[in-house]
Design brief:
63% helix; elongated
Length: 152
């Protein structure tokens, strides 16, 4: 809860406490606040023990931190065997590598065919569409929109 308080905030709180309570009353206020925090912690611990005893022996390992949704999901994803099996069968890196290899092999297969037609040989025309990975060239002047300032 107070993990994100920095040094500047702490100094500000101390200065405000000295200004509000004064240096002579400040030790008593700190003692009262620390006693109040101890009572709250003791009450919380006793409430947790009461809940655990009411739930029975099957919930003896129950932790209240598991009620946090992030912790609950993380625990279920790591401990559940079915989900672990599904997660291990679906390897995103392997799928991505397969797609990358397929794209690279397609590019290397179409490169010799394009080189053969440029050299004047009678190679079959490649049935590939436009390369979507490359940036398109600028349109010619006759292809520009009529409202384009560079067209005139």
């Amino acid at each position: 809860m107070f993990n994100d308080i920095g040094a500047l905030e702490l100094v500000t709180i101390v200065v405000l406490a000295i200004l509000i309570f004064g240096p002579d009353k400040l030790p008593k206020v700190i003692q009262d606040v620390s006693g109040f925090i101890r009572k709250i912690r003791a009450f919380s611990d006793s409430a947790k023990q009461d809940i655990r005893s009411e739930l029975g022996p099957e919930f003896k390992d129950f932790e209240f931190e598991d009620l946090n949704p992030k912790t609950f999901l993380r625990k279920q994803l790591t401990e559940n065997e079915d989900l672990r099996e599904i997660r291990s069968s679906f390897d995103l890196r392997k799928e991505l590598n397969d797609v990358t290899e397929a794209v690279n092999s397609r590019e290397t297969a179409s490169a010799p065919a394009a080189a053969g037609t440029a050299a004047g040989t009678s190679a079959a025309p490649a049935a590939t569409g436009p390369d979507l990975l490359k940036k398109p060239a600028a349109p010619a002047a006759e292809q520009r929109a009529p409202y384009d300032a560079d067209a005139t």
